[in-house]
Amino acid sequence: MYDDEHQHQLAPRQPAALTPHANALATSATTAIQARYVVAAQFPRQMVDVREQLLEECRRPAFAARALYRIPFGGKATVGPSIRFAEALLRCYGHIHVESEIVHEDDDALTLRVTITDLQRNLSIYRSSRVPKTVERAKANGRVVVASRKTSEGRMVHIVRATDQELAAALGSAESKAMRTLVLRLVPAHLVDEALDVVEATRQSDDDPDDLMRRLERTFSTHGVTIRDVLEFAGVERVAQLSKGQIGELRQIAEALNDGMATWSDYAGAVETVQPAAAPQPQPKPKRRSRASDMRDALLKGKGASEGSSDPDPNPNPEPDDSEELTGVNDPDVGERDVEDARRVVALAREAGWSLDKLRKRARGQRAGVANLGRLTPDERADIAAMIIEEAT
Hints:
It is built from 16 helices and eight strands.
């Protein structure tokens, strides 16, 4: 009797049986996942068709007008592929599954994880974003105020608890930004580069500035920006005085507002405004480099010396020991080009207020055990630069 009772006590506890509803949901989810992989295997993507569909999309003026964003950072402008461009990549490339989930929540923020999977290659990459449960408002209007701060212009703003609608909008924006970053990492760089070339050519060939300005006016008005605000920002008195180059830059600003990457106050208080474009001079078109190189140059524009430049470090109080060690200048396995690239990332991080310790942790987050930024690949350093700018904006 004792032995029987003893054996019964040591027997492993069986897991609780799923309810019929939960079991049906699990079976349905498994079937859906398997079906996606089966379809991807039976009908693999044809890169010739992918390219033709994507370039055809980029030739449409309405799409090209929304394919790029432009945001201010450190008195300079950063230009890159917009969320709409990434969505077109997703549609044309095909056999990519996107999913998002909230992996952590506390009183102050949510942690959102977005994962995209290339079903044909069985390759998954993910990105996690912290979404605060607060928003900044000029007036509290009876809302719960968590803190207050002064802007660089001396205005007082209040950090208040976000409403359900504001939190849903913030989650949607974070999901779209993460999806864009992941898609641009997954799709071949040469395809992205060619598509961006076609977008630029389409934008240049759109020769109806009056129609463009009418569309821009409608877009800006949805963000509470009047046409007079736009003209003052551009430094002109009438719409007819806007150059074609200025209109192109205003389109990029409008797309950044649509994507939630910036607000109009970011531009109105920026050091650099949209100036009339000089008469175009014929120049040989530079050879398109890899996406990593282009993204790196765009993100780090004005954040440090470019390759071959002798401009001084923009940081007046450099930290020569720790920062130089972080670049890998004393690492025999790191090349000179990688060191210069790493120095630009360090300069960008300093301007954004990052500590070297935080930057070091980000580097190790890209690749476990990495000793310095110089040992990372150009794509990995570009990802860190994107994180810095995304947090700063």
